[in-house]
Amino acid sequence: MLALTSLLSRSATGVLAYFYVFPTGSHHLLEHGLDVAIAVFIIAAVYFVGAMSKMKPAARGADR
pTM of the full predicted structure? Predict the structure, then answer.
């Protein structure tokens, strides 16, 4: 969810820069910051899914 929110924020930043709401330097810095955040969120999600798949079913709460 965080990655999708960051992606939408990145798009909004581009639109606001198009209408000169953000200066070029701020827009560039904010967009690259959001790129880093998106990458971190996706890597964390992949790691979390991999870690969960290695757990025993009882530890994941699938003992029902």
Answer: 0.73
For the stretch 18-34, pLDDT in tens is: 998 888 888 889 999 99
Q: What are phi and psi of 56, to 5 degrees?
A: -70, 150
For 44, phi then psi, to 5°, come to: -65, -40
* Tokens standing for residue 43: 């890597």
Token look-up 């709460």 returns 61
What average pLDDT score do residues 5-21 get?
Answer: 91
The identity of residue 53, as a single letter, is S
How many residues are given for the chain? 64
3-state secondary structure the chain: CHHHHHHHHHHHHHHHHHCCCCCHHHHHHHHHHHHHHHHHHHHHHHHHHHHHHHCCHHHHCCCC
